[in-house]
Amino acid sequence: MPFTTIAWAESQDAAAAWVKVAGVPDTSVSVSGDDIYCPSLTELIVYGAACEQTVASQARFTSPSMLEFGFEEYVSSLASGLTFAALPQVTDKRQSPVSLTEQEAIQAELYNNPGSAAYSYHFASLSDTAITPVTGAAIRTVRCTAAAALSAGTWASSSLTFPVSLRAGNYQCVGARCNSTNGVVFRLLFQGSPWRPGGVVVNDEADQGTDWQRQGGLGIWGEFDSRTTPQIEVLGITDSAQEVFLDLIYLG
């Protein structure tokens, strides 16, 4: 039950019309302009969008298979501005995913009227099936830090620094939180896995964040051993220090 996270970001003035948003360059999936091509994980389980909202704004996702169903997938709750709120406006489709088709082009579209060019962000997480939360396991949370130098419209990567050495052995990651002043979306990279599972960034320690992004709510994100800890990628603007919490199950 793996999942991976993809994103779109662009600075533009939609001028009260529907416009397409550029796919964020990505080495884990194929991206061409506004198109991100659906990988073998074809179930849309989570999505969200953030944009300037001086006037009424809308956002949606579209693909050939969505249109065959009859209409696009609209984002019903939008984040205002460049980042998500303390309680992020994210749509949870873990138990009723939108089925896509492998290799089809997925696009993100925006309708707003900021008066001048402004950044907007869309993100989506894809899985191979509906999510089964992890329950009944001993989950511990570890704190670490990252130093991703954020630049608008690109994924910025960093290693994770742990304050103490992890107990030797193997681990499953079953949740994560990333605090970053101007971050929007983050994802983790596990050695040997092609997928990059992630979620929304919270901007302050006092923010509630997304509860079901933690403690097994999104299933297993990935596995690693104490010598090859995951890396992180963050999408956002003008930040160079992140605080990261990983929810871990020790496998021995």
Please give the number of β-strands.
20
Largest sheet: 6 strands, mixed
Query: Count of helical segments?
Result: 1
Binned, the helix content reads under 10%
How would you sum up this structure, described in words?
The longest helix has 6 residues, at 64-69. This protein has 1 helix and 20 strands. The chain is mostly beta strands and 252 residues long. The chain has 2 domains: 3-127, Jelly Rolls (Sandwich), CATH 2.60.120; 140-250, Jelly Rolls. The strands form 4 sheets. Strands 1, 5, 8, 9, 10 and 12 form a 6-stranded mixed β-sheet that branches. Strands 2, 3, 4, 6, 7 and 11 form a 6-stranded antiparallel β-sheet that branches. 2% of the residues lie in helices and 44% in strands.
Could you give a quick summary of the protein structure above?
The chain has 252 residues and is mainly beta.
Task: Walk me through the topology.
Layout: E1 3-12, E2 17-21, E3 31-32, E4 35-37, E5 43-51, E6 58-62, H1 64-69, E7 73-74, E8 79-80, E9 90-92, E10 98-99, E11 105-112, E12 118-127, E13 140-146, E14 155-159, E15 170-179, E16 183-189, E17 198-200, E18 222-225, E19 231-236, E20 242-250
Parallel strand pairs: 5-8
Antiparallel strand pairs: 1-12, 2-11, 3-4, 4-11, 5-9, 5-10, 5-12, 6-7, 6-11, 13-20, 14-19, 15-18, 15-20, 16-17, 16-19
